Amino acid sequence: MNLIRDLGAGVIESVERLGRASVFFYEVIAGAGPLFRRFFLITQQIYAIGVLTLLIIMVSGLFVGMVLGLQGYNTLVRFGAEDSLGLLVALSLVRELGPVVTALLFAGRAGSALTAEIGLMKATEQLAGMEMMAVNPLTRVIAPRLIGGIVAMPLLAALFSAVGVLGGHVVGVGLLGVDAGSFWSQMQGGVDFYDDIVNGVIKSFAFGVTVTWIAVFEGYDAVPTSEGVASATNRTVVYSSLAVLALDFVLTALTLGEV
Amino acid sequence: MVQRKTLEIWVGLFVVAGLLGIAMLAFRVGNLTVADVSNGYPVMARFDNIGGLKVKSAVTMAGVRIGRVASITFDSERYQAIVTMNIDGRYDKIPTDTSAAILTSGLLGEQYVSLEPGGAEQYVKAGDTLRLTQSAVVLEKLIGQFLFSKAAETPGNEKPPAPSR
């Protein structure tokens, strides 16, 4: 009997949290207007979220591209199609791996930091203090972080894919001896600007919104204790990774369906 | 805390690098750099069977891509496919008796429209229809024809061919 009761309570709790998160998102976006007169607040967050995440993104992109080159070559050479290596590397990166892996790394590196920061602000009553001074913490603290994350994520994903293609080039052309000309020309012949690249940018934008939204909401909604902040950070990483993977499936199904 | 100036420089560099990444994807990885059909004009052709031809397939002449397939529609009165091709405006001297054929690049490659120039004095204008067309080769039909002609060759058709081969 208790089990059923707990189950129901859990469902109601999650639906309520989802509703709260949606209202929160709306309030942040609606209150973000005055922010554009103090653009430095956003710049600061792009630095903290984007620039500091850049290194891990580029290094991972390089290695993912190199692994794709190595793995793809071994499979393609069996069919004598190793000239298509560039196409394989570029399409996998631009369509799937770039946005998804970037979003996962982004959730781990930037999302968890956002949640911990905001949660700690709440635990030390800085947010309440702001409200006392008639400063809306949603506008002053949350909105710059949300916008910064949304701006940073597509740029990071594009860099990830670009570096990954270069990594694939290093392995494929440099180590395995694929012809450089056919590497690039096959790539250019097969990668469509609108279907693949714009699609990847849209995807990474959607992931940026999702991950940053979950991160700032979990921080803002955290139980204001050190334990509460710890579990909120944990939830951010778990939820945003799951959300990214699920959303990726939906977006891929949507865009592949119409071809 | 980082100085305001250095911070802004870093963010600026980051945004520039990100945009450069997108630009590299667009021009180096994608096919945006290949100037696609510019101020093209439409030319129609009717085919009995277009096989696997798709919108955006290439239209070539002497192997050079001079346009793309803009749309494919079905004429329900004549049971034919109407392929509208968008030909690049630079190539405006295509004779009116040019023939169009749907070929396959390689054995398993994509299908494309190949134009063979004729000898007419007039050139096709926007909206013209090419009269001479050759349908796509459907492999199954070809195999079927081959088998039938083999069967017809066998004298009398009483005995199956010796299983020596």
UniProtKB/TrEMBL annotation, chain A:
InterPro entries: ABC_MlaE_roteobac, MlaE_Permease, Permease_MalE. Keywords: Cell inner membrane, Cell membrane, Membrane, Transmembrane, Transmembrane helix, Transport. The keyword tRNA-binding does not apply. It comes from the Bacteria. GO terms for cellular component: ATP-binding cassette (ABC) transporter complex. One of its GO terms (molecular function) is phospholipid transporter activity. It is found in: Cell inner membrane. The chain crosses the membrane at residues 46-73, 85-107, 166-185, 197-217, 237-256. It is a multi-pass membrane protein. Belongs to the MlaE permease family. Part of the ABC transporter complex MlaFEDB, which is involved in a phospholipid transport pathway that maintains lipid asymmetry in the outer membrane by retrograde trafficking of phospholipids from the outer membrane to the inner membrane. Probably responsible for the translocation of the substrate across the membrane. PANTHER family: ABC TRANSPORTER PERMEASE PROTEIN-RELATED, PROTEIN TRIGALACTOSYLDIACYLGLYCEROL 1, CHLOROPLASTIC. The complex is composed of two ATP-binding proteins (MlaF), two transmembrane proteins (MlaE), two cytoplasmic solute-binding proteins (MlaB) and six periplasmic solute-binding proteins (MlaD). This is Intermembrane phospholipid transport system permease protein MlaE. The lineage of its organism: Bacteria, Pseudomonadati, Pseudomonadota, Candidatus Muproteobacteria.
TrEMBL record, chain B:
Residues 39-118 form the Mce/MlaD domain. Keywords: Membrane, Transmembrane, Transmembrane helix. Pfam families: MlaD. The chain crosses the membrane at residues 7-27. InterPro entries: ABC_MlaD (IPR030970), Mce/MlaD (IPR003399), MlaD_Phospholipid_Transporter (IPR052336). GO terms for molecular function: phospholipid binding; phospholipid transporter activity. PANTHER family: INTERMEMBRANE PHOSPHOLIPID TRANSPORT SYSTEM BINDING PROTEIN MLAD (PTHR33371:SF4), INTERMEMBRANE PHOSPHOLIPID TRANSPORT SYSTEM BINDING PROTEIN MLAD-RELATED (PTHR33371). This is Outer membrane lipid asymmetry maintenance protein MlaD. It comes from Candidatus Muproteobacteria bacterium RBG_16_60_9.
